[in-house]
């Protein structure tokens, strides 16, 4: 096909009814679109077939992961320009022909079918999780979901996360700080909010690679039990604990939080874990943590939250993230999270929104990945590395544009007498 880029651009704009904000560079070397704009590189006709059979975000993601699509130029700028077009299109349509209503648009869709060629549709990349959406958030399904996300390889995560090995939003003193400084400040903030003192017991739910457990034990003299469902994380964390000489204070378990038998604890931290719990299980999660706390104990729940929808019954999980990144992951509005914690018996004492901090964190993770791209692709495979680059860059923009947020909720299991143990002045975090 001569001048495939111009043909694609014309058909897509005719179909959508708006100009494309990015250039198109097609498999024949042709280009079309706004000069100087980032380019959507369409490497083959299969990319068009993917979009025809799964319009919107998931179709683009499949083409990206498979290497059928790429972006030339600033990745963030390209995603930002395309975001409204993608996010406003439904993910449930089986083909573009089902999305159009007028004869001109139908003609454009038929034209795209001719450009795409046969056969239709292409198989999804093997990195996509495909399963029946039933029996979510059982212990077995949660183990599978956690393994898919976290057992990618510790060496790969070392590239992305850097020496801190903390996989949650950092807490930045200034945009120019290092990632390690910001992650250290986040660990310190959590420990101060929990008012940890020597001899106390801390439960770290979703302990990851052990960074918070090590910091709390080393700097605050507490005993820590960290639980994770990832065998790779646990092995890595135990090695770090031993290297710090903290095996007498820190125990890392491969264990579901629902199976922790040895409460009560003086404090509980749940950092970046509650997104895996699910709406149907959230009250159970809150009740389990309440049960595991001593009266007067504090919970620090650090969790990503989405914006409320007018019709909550129609909310669907992000198609790309559910299929490639966090299977069965669910985001809840902040109000829902606070309400469920209160229903479980907690007294919510403080909420700190740190949305901007996650945008900064994700951009550093993307930069780490891009700086060591050749090694990352050898370790995790090209498709998995592409998943992570797209996921983190898109999420950075989502936080920066206030499409999602992240919050630290501090709650207390207040004793019957009403003495919460909290300071009179907020955010001094003393005992």
TrEMBL record:
Molecular function via GO: methyltransferase activity
| Domain Polyketide synthase-like methyltransferase residue range list | 156-397
Task: Give the signal peptide as a residue range, or say none if absent.
Answer: none
**Active site (record annotation):** 395
- What is any Pfam family matched here? CMAS
GO BP field: lipid biosynthetic process; methylation
SMART domains reported in the protein's UniProt record? PKS_MT (SM00828)
Which UniProt keywords are given for this protein, alphabetically ordered?
A: Lipid metabolism, Methyltransferase, S-adenosyl-L-methionine, Transferase
Q: Which family does it belong to?
A: Belongs to the CFA/CMAS family.
Put simply, this protein is called Cyclopropane-fatty-acyl-phospholipid synthase family protein
Classification lineage: Bacteria, Bacillati, Actinomycetota, Actinomycetes, Kitasatosporales
């Amino acid at each position: 096909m001569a001048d495939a880029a111009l043909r694609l651009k014309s058909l897509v704009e005719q179909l959508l009814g708006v100009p494309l904000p990015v250039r198109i560079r097609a498999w024949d070397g042709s280009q079309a679109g706004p000069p100087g704009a980032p380019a959507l590189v369409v490497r083959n006709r299969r990319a068009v077939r993917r979009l025809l059979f799964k319009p919107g975000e998931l179709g683009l993601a499949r083409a990206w992961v498979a290497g059928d699509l790429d972006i030339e130029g600033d990745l963030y700028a390209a995603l930002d320009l395309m975001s409204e077009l993608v996010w406003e299109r439904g993910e449930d349509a089986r083909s573009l022909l089902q999305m159009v209503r007028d004869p001109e648009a139908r003609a454009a869709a038929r034209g795209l079918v001719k450009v795409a060629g046969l056969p239709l549709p292409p198989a999804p990349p093997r990195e996509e999780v495909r399963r029946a959406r039933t029996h979510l958030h059982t212990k077995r399904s949660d183990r599978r979901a956690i393994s898919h996300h976290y057992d990618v390889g510790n060496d790969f995560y070392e590239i992305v996360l850097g020496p801190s090995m903390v996989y949650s939003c950092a807490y930045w003193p200034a945009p120019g700080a290092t990632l390690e400084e910001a992650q250290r400040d986040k660990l310190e903030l959590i420990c101060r909010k929990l008012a940890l003192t020597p001899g106390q017991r801390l439960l770290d739910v979703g302990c990851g690679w052990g960074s918070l457990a090590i910091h709390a034990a080393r700097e605050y003299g507490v005993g820590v039990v960290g639980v994770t469902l990832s065998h790779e994380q646990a092995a890595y964390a135990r090695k770090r604990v031993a290297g710090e000489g903290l095996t007498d204070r820190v125990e890392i378990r491969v264990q579901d939080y629902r199976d922790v038998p040895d409460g009560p604890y003086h404090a509980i931290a749940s950092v970046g874990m509650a997104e895996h719990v699910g709406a149907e299980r959230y009250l159970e999660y809150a009740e389990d943590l309440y049960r595991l706390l001593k009266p007067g104990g504090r919970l620090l729940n650090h969790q990503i939250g989405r914006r409320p929808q007018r019709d909550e019954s129609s909310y669907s999980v992000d198609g790309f993230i559910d299929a490639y990144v966090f299977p069965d992951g669910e985001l809840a509005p902040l109000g829902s999270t606070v309400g469920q914690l209160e229903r479980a018996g907690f007294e919510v004492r403080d909420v700190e929104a740190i949305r901007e901090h996650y945008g900064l964190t994700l951009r550093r993770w993307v930069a780490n990945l891009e700086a060591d791209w050749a090694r990352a692709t050898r370790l995790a495979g090209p498709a998995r590395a592409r998943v992570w680059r797209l996921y983190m860059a898109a999420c950075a923009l989502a936080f920066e544009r206030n499409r999602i947020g992240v919050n630290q909720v501090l709650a207390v299991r207040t004793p019957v007498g009403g003495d919460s143990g909290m300071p009179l002045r907020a955010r001094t975090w003393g005992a």
